[in-house]
Write a structure and sequence with these properties.
single chain; about 160 residues; two-stranded antiparallel ribbon; flat
Length: about 160
C-alpha cells in the first residue's frame, strides 16, 4: 500500500465549503425556530413512512419476502407492489376529493377542514389478502354512492370515518 497523497485545496474550495456549511447551519436554525416549518417537515416524513408501511402490508402475505428467484422476477414483484400501492392511494385520494367537494358545497367547513387533514395513504378498508380476478365484465364502484354513506366523527384524535 502506498500513502494517499493529500488533496490540494485552494482558497475557493475552502470558501465554498464554508458557505455550504453556513447555509446548512442557517437552514437548521430556521427549522429549529419555526414550529410550522418543523411540523410540515415532520408531516412530509410521516407521508413517506406511511407509503413504505403500505408497501410492506402489500408484500406481507409472503412474510415480507419476494417469491421471485431471479433478479428480474424480484424487480417485477417490487414494481407490482408499487403499482398496487399507487392504485390504493389514487382510489383514496379520489374518494377524499369527492367527499371534500360535497362538504364544501353543503357549507360544512369544519368537516371539510377535517377531510383536508386525512391522508390518502390508508388501507384498513381494503382487503389485501385473497385472489383477485380482473376481466372485461368488471363494474367500477360508484364513488358518489359510497360518499353518500360516509359520516365524519371527530373524536379526541384522530378523525374517524363511518361508512
Amino acid at each position: 500500500f502506498s500513502r494517499i497523497p493529500p488533496i490540494k485545496v485552494n482558497a475557493n474550495s475552502k470558501k465554498s465549503a464554508f458557505d455550504q456549511s453556513a447555509g446548512v447551519s442557517a437552514v437548521c436554525a430556521k427549522v429549529s425556530d419555526d414550529i410550522s416549518l418543523r411540523q410540515n417537515v415532520q408531516r412530509a416524513l410521516n407521508r413517506g413512512e406511511a407509503y413504505h408501511q403500505l408497501q410492506r402490508a402489500i408484500t406481507h402475505p409472503n412474510g415480507g419476502r419476494f417469491k421471485g428467484t431471479t433478479e428480474y422476477e424480484i424487480a417485477i414483484e417490487s414494481d407490482c407492489s408499487r403499482l398496487i400501492a399507487n392504485a390504493i392511494i389514487y382510489y383514496n385520494a379520489k374518494m377524499l376529493s369527492v367527499l371534500l367537494a360535497r362538504l364544501e358545497s353543503e357549507g360544512k367547513e369544519d368537516e371539510a377542514a377535517l377531510v383536508k387533514r386525512l391522508s390518502p395513504v390508508a388501507w384498513r378498508h381494503i382487503n389485501l389478502f385473497g385472489r383477485y380476478e380482473f376481466n372485461g365484465d368488471l363494474q367500477l364502484p360508484d364513488i358518489d354512492e359510497i360518499i353518500r354513506h360516509i359520516h365524519l366523527k371527530k373524536k379526541s384524535s384522530p378523525v374517524t370515518v363511518d361508512i
